[in-house]
Amino acid sequence: MKFLKSMAVFFLIAALAGCTADEKHGVSEKARPEVSGVTIARIEPVAVSRSHQVTGTVKAVSESRVAGRMMGAVLEVLVDAGDRVKKGALLARLDDRDMVEKVAQARAGLREAQQALAAAEENMTLAEITHGRYQALFQEKALSRQELDQVTSNKKMAAFEYERVGEMISRAEAAIREAEVGLSFTRITAPVSGLITAKNVEPGSMALPGAPLFTIEDTSAYEVEAAVAEALAEKVAVGMEVHVEIPATGEEMTGTVSEKIAAIDPLSRTFRIRVALAEKNLASGRFVKVFLPMGDVTILQVPVAALVTKGQLTGVYTVDDDRKITYRLVRLGKEQGGRVEILSGIRAGEQVIVGDADRASDGAVLGQDVTWDAAEQKGGDNE
N or C terminus: fewer CB in 10 A for the chain? Predict the structure, then answer.
């Protein structure tokens, strides 16, 4: 009897424990929250274009350093740094009194030579007439051969004198041109149209031959000069199209590698490239980012809206085949066009909440009122 009573008590306790476990299990299942109103997508691999970023500086393709060609005191400076000038515009004027006198002297020499030429022409004409008369007298035997030879010699000398004075005219004209060129050196003009980026002279200072007075930047064409790691030497070629961004202004543009300087800098282990830009009126010295195309790769991406940050952790909500929601930590790659690369944390083919992720919670279950994003199921658009 005691044994039967003991067994009855044992089964009663077991029955009560089983009921309690079932009740607890039921409460747990009922306590799991249900999530609705979210957007789900199946994440598939996509092919994207990879690029390598380097930094560079905007420079004008043509930059002119304007220097004087003669020594002289600066009388007037007509421009300042930041001014835009046209080709041939007067920038500064030097003391020209000496050159003005030289031009006047050369012109006076020309007038003197012209008068001498007129006199030589008259003398040559007279010598020709006299020779003709003496020739007739000689034929009539009224003159001796010596007298005729003397007149013939005078005629030749007059012709030689005329030619000599003619050369004097040429020398005088050349002297005028030389003096006028020297006079033009006292007027400093712009060799090209562009922007004055530097002014190194003030009125009253002394201009020296070859010393830069102004720097003019041609604003019609710009390029980027950048340093590229030597490991990419075989992947960068002249003619390659690249993407260029100017962070300060937010401008984006396309450029073309116009020059590749193959020599490697032994200190930085880089080589230099120049990228031609079609845009005008940029600003020299701007910091830019240059993106060199490196080909296509296959990656996993999710919309930025799918990311959920908890403290310093970043993850996404995944949905398994039983509609259970799990918060999964992920490692992020590059972000572009509103999408971010997932380096680790999820696999291809997994379902992720990509819209209204703030409604979800770890351990919840997916309700019936959800939306499937067909575009995301196909992997999204290629970038």
Answer: N
Residue 25 reports pLDDT greater than 50: no
> pLDDT class for 17, splitting at 50, 70, 90?
very low
pLDDT score, position 368:
81
Mean pLDDT of 350-370: 88
The Cα 340–Cα 345 span in angstroms is 13
Closest CA to 207 of 96, 91, 76, 72: 72
With the C-alpha atoms ordered 138, 144, 145, 151, is the resulting torsion angle positive or negative? negative
Tell whether the model's pLDDT for residue 313 goes beyond 60: yes
Buried b (16+ CB within 10 A) or exposed e, 170-198: eebbebbeebeebbebbebebbbebbbbe
Give the pair of three-digit tokens for residue 230: 């030597």
Alpha-carbon distance values, 237 to 82, 178, 261, 293 (Å): 36, 50, 10, 11
Helical spans, DSSP H, in the chain: 2-31, 97-139, 145-184, 374-377
| Contact criterion met (CB below 8 Å) for 286 and 58 | yes
Work out the angle at residue 39's Cα, subtended by the Cα atoms of residues 36 and 41, and round it to the nearest 5 degrees: 130
**Which one-letter amino acid corresponds to residue 232?**
L
Amino acid type, 85: V
The letter for the amino acid at 109 is G
Q: Considering just the CA atoms, what is the radius of gyration of the chain in Å?
A: 47
Q: How many residues does the chain have?
A: 383
Residue-wise pLDDT tens digits, 146-157 = 887 888 888 888
Neighbours of 216 (CB within 10 A): 27
pLDDT tens, residue by residue, 258-302: 999 989 999 999 999 999 998 877 888 899 999 999 888 888 999
